Amino acid sequence: MQIINQDNKYHKFSGTKFQLHPRVLKATVKASSEKNQSGQNSDDATSEDKVLSQQKDGHNAALWRNWDAFCRFTRPYTVIGTISGAASISLLPLTSARDLSPAFFVGLVKALIPLPFMNIYVGGINQLFDVEIDKINKPYLPLASGEYSMAQGKAIVAASGLMCLAMGIMFQSPPLFFGNLGALLIGTAYSVDLPLLRWKTKPFLAAFSIVGLPLTSHLGVFYHIQKSVLGRKTVFTKSLGFTAIFLTLFFISIAMFKDIPDVDGDQEFGNRTFCVSLGKKKVFSISLTILLIAYGFAVVIGASSSIVLNKLVSVIGHCTIASFLWLRASSLNLNDNASVQSFYMLLWKLLNAEYVLIHFIR
């Protein structure tokens, strides 16, 4: 047996067999073990990172699904429309730039805060009593699809209604409180299935509800600013009169049009809406005619203004919108619910545009 020492490394030869020195062998085994353990730890860390990443993605997806369901339940486009309308109406009582005081902005905030809760209540209570119909007409809604339980829906609706009323009391503004209370009562009468109620199944009462609900709220905001904030006498101004007439016509049109995609479910459950009684085409024709009358009325009133700028903006603006509306209506396919829904959303956008134009009627 021969032992060779080379660079402090010991190798032992026995015949043709090669063996490591015990100390070298021990060090090699230890290094290999540490390497394997390090690799295993690295694999474990990678696996743990993947699990955490998957959990995070799952959590984010769950949050998004919950938010999406909440938006479908609360219908943000109606909330935006109500807030933009109230903000616009709040400017009508102003007579000069000096009225844009800190007190005005505080009063405006007080007027706007309860409105989302009012909208959620009105839209939510309608869904609570329309679950079976919505399974046919709007199966994507959370209650109809089963994403929300009835208990969850009732909790959201009850909390929203109470918050709306509580804020009206807390802000100590009678016009604001009674305006919101009136809107909540109309919304309840429209949807709740009780004797003499469930107005949505009676065409004229349904139209009254669709018109009366926003007008009641808007009038509350107007007189809240005029009386409670600015401290002035209650006056029915020209701009408010125009706004009330125009919005009445506009919301009558919306009240008729909104039931077009719901004909199947309404027929099955015996809801005698205008669409069920008259048919889609006739209802759409009447709805469009009412809208064009509203814009024609706006052009006439705008043309009578003594201020040249107001006259030009009002006449040109309303003529442009009416022309655009006519073009879109001429290409609408009433048998395509997606097309009908797109046109319905257009009406809400045009309503927001009108909330700008009403300030040129002075």
Q: What does this 3D model show about the protein?
A:
A hairpin with a 2-residue loop joins strand 1 and strand 2 (9-14). The chain has a 3-stranded antiparallel β-sheet. It contains 15 helices and 3 strands. Mean pLDDT is 83; it is low at 1-18. With 362 residues, the protein is mostly helical. It folds into 3 domains: 2-56; 76-234, UbiA prenyltransferase (Tetracycline Repressor, domain 2); 236-362. The protein has helices spanning 22-74, 76-89, 102-112, 114-128, 131-137, 142-145, 150-170, 174-191, 203-229, 238-257, 263-268, 274-278, 280-303, 308-330, 337-357; strands at 2-6, 9-14, 17-20. Helix content is 74%, strand content 4%. The longest helix has 53 residues, at 22-74. It is globular.
Low-confidence stretches: 1-18
CATH level 1 name of the largest domain: Mainly Alpha
Our measurement of the CA-to-CA distance between the termini, rounded to an integer number of angstroms, reads 117 Å
Mean pLDDT: 83
CATH topology of the largest domain: Tetracycline Repressor, domain 2
Count the E strands.
Answer: 3
**Shape-level CATH architecture of the largest domain:** Orthogonal Bundle
Spatial sequence of strands, sheet with the most strands: 1-2-3
CATH superfamily name of the largest domain?
UbiA prenyltransferase
In total, how many domains does the architecture comprise? 3
User: For the report, how would you describe the main beta sheet?
Assistant: 3 strands, antiparallel
Outline, from the CA principal axes?
globular
Number of helices: 15
Main structural class:
mainly alpha
Helix content: over 70%
Strand content: under 5%
Indicate the radius of gyration in whole angstroms.
34 Å
Order of helices and strands: EEEHHHHHHHHHHHHHHH
InterPro entries: AtHST-like (IPR044502), UbiA_prenyltransferase (IPR000537), UbiA_sf (IPR044878)
GO molecular function, one term: prenyltransferase activity
Region (Disordered): 29-52
Keywords: Membrane, Transferase, Transmembrane, Transmembrane helix
